[in-house]
Amino acid sequence: MYRSAAKERTTGVEATLQADGWTGINNHHLVAFMMNAKREIHTVRVLDTSTERKTAPVFLKHIEETLQSLGEDWKVVVVAFTSDASGESRAARIALLKKYPWLIVLDCYAHQVNLVVGDYLKCGGPTLAITDDAEELISWLRRRTFVLARIREVQTSNGKSAYAVIRPVATRWTSHYLAFKRLLELKPALAVILAEDQAAGGDSTFMAGIKTAAAKAKARQMLALIEDGHFWHSLNRIDISVAPRIKLHLEPLAIAAHVAQASHCRLDQVLLLFGTMYYRFSHLPPDIADPVASAAVLKSLEDRWAKADQAIFVAAVILNPLYRLQPFAELSEFVDMELEHLMVQLWKRLFRAEEAPQDLYDDFSDYLHKQGRFKRLEDHLKSKLERAQAQNIPIDPLDIWKAAGVSGRPEPPLTMLAKRILSVCANSASCERLFSIFGQLLTKQRNRMGSATLTALAELKMHLRDEYSRSQGMKERLKRHCGKPQETPAPAAAINSQQVAASHPAGNNAASTRPADADEDESMDGGARTHTGGELRAISDALMRAAEDDSDPNPLLPSHYASAYGPDSQPFSRTLKELFDFGAPQWVARIEGFASRGLDEELEMYELLDFDGAGDSEPNIAGDSADFAEGSGDFELDAMTAEILQS
């Protein structure tokens, strides 16, 4: 029923085919093909390729079979294909482009942005030392329920919203950035607690209830870290120039990664994010700049841009009415006649036409000069921006193109071209989301599930999640209210300064049944918990290995893309430094304003997940045999129950 409804909704629309591979706990290798159409995600097919050789010709055969299925069964128009950057995938994409030159063939730019992050972290030895300390402090604070209660008490007594101590997700580096950012926001409350303890004398809040020597030593270590001004300055990137600073360098990378791995990331967003990152790392003030790390980021961005189909990305920005030519420098490629030639070449390629219609020439000239049907474009954009800001919602450029047309009439050629380019999704992140669900379903206890059943369950779960996320009351249902009713939440765009308010009585802690003076740093066997730490360091190592795998002797180059436009075509090839106008960066503020909204919403999600919890409890049994569901207090859960609660 769901599949039939999905096919009915997507008939005749333009779609992006996405592909990626995954190996489950049962050692079966699955290749998933997903479709992004009308901003919706659908699973097309999942293949078990465990017995096949992982070669480009085999992968190309599967791609072609899927393209045929989409045309015949789904009746969609596939305009683009994205996959990961492995050598065989890249070779298959080169062959696909030669055989189907009208397809837009792309790397997964969520992966590419994360590789830029890996190149940055590769230069960040001091940075990783600081983040190790920050992770350890966060982990320790979350185990001290009395300290958490005092933090909430201090915040609410000053008339401010109470912030949670956010736990970073082990496999998501953007969550580490948000966790460090939150730790900085909690610094004033920690300073107040230290000052009050010093004035009152007696035991410190941070030492309360601790009995064993090992736990006391750990508490003294964390207390020294809280009092260490060098640590906070390094984390905040304000005064200390000895160590790379966390917040100001990671923020543009975190914003870019969040946008690039969204369910639908457009081509124009990718290029503008590349330009924004280049601007930020090439214009850092001397007191906070790290020349080595900045040079690594700039080189990484240029290397990845050099392998792109640059013409299609540039056209996507130009055809976004919010930007048009504003971000670009005054280059010979951007005079009217060259831009007209670019649009004509794109029309011939993407629509498989010998000639472009005359209306395309006239309409594009009107678009550039805001004449004809575009004469009120500025007024319409101003109105859209005001409404978007008031409602805290993004602007879809396709809505602007729809507003510039006549309802019920055939679309002009320029609108058709803009819709085709702006409908492309530049990542294969939907495959990763499918694999995450596969990992929840395929476990040690359920390791013989067939791929058909696994796919059906995952597809149903994704469908139910999407339907629920579109329901009106989802956020209100997520916010669990304790004590007095919740105040009206601040807009997501303002979360940096006004986090989601919540009320938690300091003494009402239902998640734990231990006495108030219990030693929360001790396991049942009497030993102190050891912090494993280094989660961001592990992510950094994984990203660096991925960057090495991305180096290929036969990459897709502009010359490959130029052949798709015809034998006499010259590739559009400019460096990011040449391409953008960094002297008038108003466009940077606009793209960061839109992009940071999603990161703020992620912060709000972590706030909802972490605020009500009493803290991270200690396992009752040491060792791998103890499957413990976080937040369950002293109740020991069997493996199946813990798995259900964590899924």
UniProtKB/TrEMBL annotation:
HAT C-terminal dimerisation domain ranges (all copies): 389-458
MF annotations from Gene Ontology: protein dimerization activity; zinc ion binding
Region listing for Disordered, in residue ranges: 469-534
Domain DUF659: 10-123
Principal location: nucleus
Subcellular location: Nucleus
GO cellular component, one term: nucleus
Matching Pfam families: Dimer_Tnp_hAT, DUF659
Entry keywords, A to Z: Metal-binding, Nucleus, Zinc, Zinc-finger
PANTHER family xrefs: ZINC FINGER BED DOMAIN-CONTAINING PROTEIN 39, ZINC FINGER BED DOMAIN-CONTAINING PROTEIN 4
Protein's name according to its UniProt entry: DUF659 domain-containing protein
Natural source organism: Pycnoporus cinnabarinus (Cinnabar-red polypore)
Lineage of the organism: Eukaryota, Fungi, Dikarya, Basidiomycota, Agaricomycotina
